[in-house]
Design a protein that fits this description.
heterodimer, A: mainly alpha, 13 helices, elongated, B: alpha/beta, eight-stranded mixed β-sheet, four-stranded antiparallel β-sheet, 12 strands, 22% strand, globular
Chain lengths: 293, 346
């Protein structure tokens, strides 16, 4: 990720576009690639109707057709257009994963911050509860929650969100521990700032880099976990498409017609890669020390 | 310096009065007494040096004054008064008003004492806005004035700089500006020049001296560097193992120490000792605060220790000239009849 090995682009008059283009997010070639993948994915999430027709329209006479100009990714067992199902499946998979990370952050960041800054009994209490949660395999716990509260994408997302809390909280706590020992926290206290102010205004912004990195990793895992749970039939319910259940459906005729499975698998892979690449660039962008390098 | 202000002054003229301060930490290995009965006064406008090795209790004393010790693991006994107001046992919320506004602190490490994510100007302006509730523009105007006061070149430019874009000396100036923002009556500087290189050290010391003079502020300088003390302070308090070893005006402290520990420090300091091929050293190291030897804590390292020194803790007593020392043999040292033979490394 060092800037030295990347080609430098010089602009004679760096206007707004020039400044944007010379920021590390753009200078970093990997994150540009990530953005290039992410943009179409976002269009799929928010405007699927621009890209494809009805994903649930069946045509049994067109069952398991290979890719053709009419169906660019072929059709599945029920003659549904695989491209349309990929496009419409993006929303539950990607938005679901985003909400999972959001939930884990909203709960995990304050818990980790409090545990790391306060220490002592507060820390012990918070961390023991989280350790207990961490002791369960994530998918098993999600299955347990879904079994209790009923299947469906909503349950899966909330369950995964809670399951992702310990990882986020642990990370935030460890970074907070480092920062709470730095002299600027002492300096803030010596200036009469309250603990709340120090935590929220001084330590929290310093956590952003670590949280962004963790979030992108979590996002990638959440995409896979949602896909896995849908694959098991616990998430999105048929006939509505999502990438995990597409994989599951396509499994039974993988050898005769590999394109639905390949398409769904490739979509998951691209989403995970792009999120990681963009997250890396974002982290660099948010740190003033890297921004000006 | 003709007037001797070595002893505890009258309570009336003291800005800060520390009396019988004891600090004990609860550790897994049992209680550790880091500060063991320290008393001193600082008058308004006075500069005092608190000198000692690591573990002598100098930083703990300063933190106790600031109320920055962790309440869960430390106990503070004794009294610290600022303008007659008792600080020990003050609720955190009241203490917060005192920190920054009446007592401020400059830290040792200018590298980490500024938040890396905020511009230098923002951090000083935050202190102003927090304590005085002034408007954003007012705060940034005052920040620029403060930056000019602390001798930062191009104050308007530095306001917009992030800490990593400033040199160590400039960061320390920003920190001093931050501490001065609320015009405290007492500034505590904890090793303010230790992390800086020598030429910058001299500049920062000069700045502190000028600020104390111009603002009539009292300065409590915490340092292990006797050269710094001699440069800046009127009086020095020498700490050893959580106790006061000696209190004296700076010139007489080094010219004629009343405590063997001070004598050893002076003799081993190249800036103070007369030129010699090899400087002597004080043998051994400071005692572990968890197991301070009985009697005088310095006795195991003292070349003049008697049996009495190993059994009986010497009290801090005033000599005829008003200087304070905690040593059974101060009278002999003062009279010049006791010579100390320090180990000279070969």
């Amino acid at each position: 990720m060092s800037a030295e090995e990347l080609p430098r682009v010089t602009f004679t008059r760096p206007g707004r576009v020039g400044r944007l283009a010379s920021s590390p997010l753009a200078r970093n070639r990997a994150s540009i690639i990530g953005l290039l993948i992410l943009v179409p994915l976002l269009v799929m999430v928010f405007f699927p109707f621009l890209l494809a027709g009805d994903p649930n329209a069946q045509n049994l006479s067109q069952s398991l057709q290979p890719p053709s100009p009419e169906h660019i990714l072929g059709t599945d067992k029920l003659g549904r257009d695989v491209w349309a199902r990929i496009v419409y499946g993006a929303r539950p998979t990607l938005l679901g994963a985003f909400v999972v990370v959001l939930i884990s952050g909203v709960i995990g960041i304050p818990l980790g911050l409090l545990a790391g800054y306060r220490g002592g009994k507060t820390e012990a209490g918070i961390m023991r509860v989280l350790d207990a949660l961490l002791a369960f395999p994530a998918l098993l716990l999600a299955i347990l929650v879904v079994a209790t509260f009923g299947r469906g994408l909503g349950t899966v997302v909330v369950a995964l969100g809670v399951i992702y809390v310990p990882a986020m909280a642990r990370l935030v706590r460890s970074v907070t521990l480092v920062h709470a020992r730095l002299a600027y926290v002492d300096a803030g206290r010596a200036l009469g700032y309250s603990d709340r102010r120090i935590m929220l205004r001084h330590i929290l912004p310093n956590l952003v880099a670590a949280v962004v990195v963790q979030s992108t990793i979590d996002l990638a895992y959440a995409i896979l976990d949602i896909a896995a749970l849908s694959f098991l039939g616990l998430g999105q319910q048929p006939p509505d498409p999502d990438w995990g259940s597409m994989l599951a459906d396509a499994r039974s005729y993988l050898l005769q017609a590999p394109w639905p499975a390949l398409s769904a698998g490739f979509a998951i892979m691209l989403a995970v890669i792009s999120v990681n690449l963009v997250g890396d660039g974002l982290r660099a962008q948010l740190d003033p020390r890297e921004r000006e390098r | 310096m003709t007037a001797m202000r070595a002893g505890r002054g009258t309570a009336g003229d003291a800005l800060l009065s520390v009396h019988a301060l004891e600090v004990e930490f609860r550790t897994s290995a049992g209680p550790v007494r880091a500060v063991n009965g320290i008393s001193f006064d600082i008058a308004a406008g006075e500069t005092i040096g608190l000198v000692g090795e690591s573990g002598s209790g100098k930083s703990v004393t300063s933190r106790a004054i600031m109320g920055l010790l962790p309440p869960k693991t430390s106990t503070i006994l004794g009294s610290v008064t600022l303008n007659g107001d008792e600080l020990v046992g003050l609720p955190e919320k009241t203490y917060r008003k005192i920190r920054g506004e009446r007592v401020a602190m400059v830290f040792q490490d200018p590298l980490t004492a500024l938040n890396p994510l905020y511009k230098a100007g923002e951090q000083v302006a935050e202190a102003l806005r927090f304590h005085f509730g002034v408007s954003r523009s007012e705060a940034s105007a005052r920040t620029r004035d403060l930056f000019a006061d602390v001798g930062l070149p191009d104050p308007d430019g530095v306001v917009e700089k992030y800490p990593h874009e400033l040199s160590g000396g400039m960061r320390q100036r920003v920190l001093i500006a931050m501490a001065l923002a609320c015009e405290p009556q007492l500034l505590i500087a904890d090793e303010p020049t230790t992390a800086l290189d020598v030429t910058i050290q001299a500049q920062i010391l000069e700045l502190l001296r000028d600020l104390v003079r111009d603002r009539g502020m009292a300065l409590l300088l915490i340092t292990h560097d006797l050269g710094v003390v001699r440069e800046l302070c009127e009086r020095a308090i020498v700490l050893y193992a959580g106790r006061i070893a000696e209190v004296a005006p700076v010139e007489s402290l080094f010219a004629a120490p009343y405590h063997p520990y001070t004598a050893g420090l002076a003799a081993s300091n190249p800036q103070i000792a007369s030129r010699r091929a090899r400087l002597p050293q004080i043998p051994g190291g400071p005692p572990n605060p968890a197991s301070v030897p009985p009697g005088c804590p310095f006795s195991p390292r003292c070349p003049a220790a008697l049996d009495r020194c190993r059994e009986e803790v010497p009290p801090l007593v005033a000599s005829a000239d008003g200087r304070l020392a905690a040593c059974h043999r101060t009278a002999e040292l003062a009279a010049g009849t006791l010579s100390l033979d320090w180990e000279v490394p070969s």
